[in-house]
Specification:
The protein is α/β, with parallel strands linked by helices. The strands form two sheets. Strands 4-3-2-5-6-9-7 form a seven-stranded mixed beta sheet, with helices on both faces. Strands 1-8 form a two-stranded antiparallel sheet.
Length: 278
């Protein structure tokens, strides 16, 4: 569908894209096809698409996946989407806010779980963290986000883009920036460049309490200019912290932005081990 064709369709339905909901619809056949190719779909795959919008990506997913769950919060767009996917009985449209869904329950049982979506800008970060935290056995995520968010997802320790989102996501998954998409590929064009990121979930590190890991990460980046000794003081008693840092090989004079995911995990593991022996 060309941009002009999409505009005509939306006008016919009385739909105006809402920037408040991050409604920028990807219309480029080239980029849509590349996204689907990255997902490596087959009949055993169940795909969750959040922010399905006008169904241009949904239809491509339906051609290759065994099941598609398309989530759309805008009632007008959801109605349009339902009309457009009637030829695909294995596509289910959910009129819902993705952040309020039971994300595990939306996937049909017995199928491989994947996420392929042009994520609404406003919910991309919290939704990715929730998916990785709450949905077991996710096999692959291919998501379009703002380039700024993409840089944070793939950032390295010590860089300006490295932060809490980086650490929480990379605890669960490997990340790769696949390609960028210019504003001209969307209707209406956003004010920023977008990028497609591939996330490949991996098993959680053994012996690491994730709640404790997350607490340490939030404290470190909540006061990212402070040394770890001061940033972690409110959440860990000083003596325990000193011992855990020594066992993990982490210098408490460092700042959180310099620690790798593995180092955060090592401190969390050492703290948990120390608590077990008390």
């Amino acid at each position: 569908m060309t941009p002009s064709e999409l505009f005509r369709l939306l006008k016919t339905r009385g739909i105006r894209p809402r920037r408040s909901l991050g409604q920028h619809f990807l219309t480029s056949r080239l980029y849509l096809d590349r996204i689907v190719q990255l997902a490596n779909l087959g009949p055993q795959d169940a795909v969750l698409e959040v922010g399905a919008g006008t169904g241009l990506l949904t239809a491509r997913l339906a051609e290759q996946a065994g099941a598609v769950v398309a989530v759309e919060v805008d009632p007008q767009l959801a109605e349009l989407l339902e009309d457009l996917v009637t030829v695909h009985p294995h596509v289910r449209v959910l009129r819902a806010d993705a952040l309020e869904l039971d994300l595990c329950a939306v996937f049909p049982p017995g199928m491989r779980r994947k996420v392929v979506a042009n994520l609404p800008y406003g919910i991309a970060s919290p939704l990715l963290v929730r998916l990785l935290e709450e949905v077991p056995d996710l096999e692959r995520l291919v998501v379009t986000v703002q380039e700024e968010v993409a840089r944070r997802l793939v950032a390295r320790p010590g860089t300006a883009d490295y932060g809490l989102l980086t650490v929480l996501v990379r605890f669960h998954a490997e990340t790769e920036l696949a390609f960028r998409i210019p504003p001209s590929a969307f209707v209406p064009p956003p004010r920023v460049t977008s990028a497609v990121v591939v996330l490949t979930p991996r098993p959680r590190p053994e012996g690491v309490d994730y709640e404790l890991f997350r607490t340490l990460a939030r404290a470190a980046f909540g006061q990212r200019r402070k040394q770890l000794r001061r940033a972690w003081a409110p959440v860990v008693p000083a003596q325990r912290l000193e011992e855990a840092a020594r066992l993990a090989g982490v210098d408490l004079r460092r700042r959180g932005e310099t620690l790798s995911v593995e180092e955060f995990a090592a401190v969390a593991s050492a703290l948990a081990a120390g608590a077990c022996h008390e």
